[in-house]
Amino acid sequence: MSGKIGIKDVAAAAGVSITTVSHALNGKGRLPTETRERVREIADRLGYRPNVNARNLAGGRTGLVALTVSQEPELAFQLGDFDYFASLIRYATTAALARGFALAALPPVADNEDVFHHLPLDGAIVVDPVPGDRSLDYLRSQRTPIVTTGRPVDVAAEEEEGYWIDNEHIEGMRSVLDHLAEVGAERIALVLPSYPASYVADMRRGYVEWCAARACEERIVMARDLTEPAGFEAARSLLDGPEPPDAIYASLDRLAIGALMAAETRGIEVPGALRVACCTDSYAARHAATPLTTLALNPEQIGEEAANMLIDLVEGVEPRPRHRFIPTKLLPRESTLGGTAVATGAA
């Protein structure tokens, strides 16, 4: 086709009525999910662009959604501190734009409460919600549509009633521990942040269950924050103990890099005497002095699905399913391979 694509062109290509196209793109009507998705795919393929401003005005919407990362005042960090957040935001923004919405990355309410009060938001994504989060409290009080990445842990019924995207953290934990055992590790320690998000609870549960099934001693150390120095301190406390671990799995790349530093200061060879792995893949993990084995969480897919789920809610379309798990992927690298290790396809 040449020239500007109109709604009639989309209807003809999809073999449906103009009304069906309008309902599919605007979230109206009672269309089967398959029909709605097929019409949207055809519209995207043809390059159809509706008049977004007119559509939003007609629907009483502003066309603005937000994304914020839940935080505790004692454990402040910036969005730019982690590749995970950057990827999630980038793909959520792209997905929102494809649906005719602008996405703004906002600080937590605790940092700037006026931002949330004065922006006319149609909906919001809250990343890794923690108990008592003021952003969530405010959004709920305004009856703003919300999707979380990570499950809310402060409302007992929220897991069933809310809308969220999450990783299979327990299964991911098992895959990492199985890998470490396969390459010869027998005393595997876990470094977690003192952070009440659902992923921390899931990682702890997966680790405890794995150790119990194998009659292994649990070795869990809580890091004071999410930085390399905190990882260094946590690893040092383990390595200086009477029976040091031969593997450390950290919940974040920065904590794992701190563990590498602690091993280096003590002359401990990685991966010879100690294997180190971490959850979340990043540039820093891939390019560490000893490239780190990581568990990739696929933030790109999480961001895209969270944005589409949120906009479905804003447009009055009930997302199905309401709760979605995104699989993880083990990426073995030098920090656990080499020496007596079994090479399993380093990436």
Task: List the defining traits of the structure above.
single chain, 347 residues, alpha/beta, six-stranded parallel sheet, elongated, disordered C terminus
What topology emerges from the helices and strands here?
Elements: H1 7-14, H2 18-26, H3 33-46, H4 52-58, E1 64-69, H5 83-98, E2 102-105, H6 113-118, E3 123-127, H7 134-141, E4 146-149, H8 158-161, E5 164-167, H9 169-182, E6 188-193, H10 198-213, E7 220-223, H11 228-239, E8 247-250, H12 253-265, E9 275-279, H13 283-286, E10 293-296, H14 299-314, E11 323-326, E12 329-331
Parallel strand pairs: 1-2, 1-3, 3-4, 4-5, 5-11, 6-7, 6-8, 8-9, 9-10
Antiparallel strand pairs: 10-12
Helix pairs in contact: 1-2, 1-3, 2-3, 5-14, 9-10, 11-12
- Uncertain spans, ≥5 residues at pLDDT below 50? 340-347
What sequence of helices (H) and strands (E) makes up the elements?
Answer: HHHHEHEHEHEHEHEHEHEHEHEHEE
- From the structure provided, what is the oligomeric state, counting identical versus distinct chains? single chain
Backbone shape:
elongated
Helix and strand composition category: alpha/beta
Strand order of the largest sheet: 2-1-3-4-5-11
Mean of all residue-level pLDDT scores? 86
Q: Count helical runs.
A: 14
Helix fraction?
A: 40-55%
Largest beta-sheet details: 6 strands, parallel
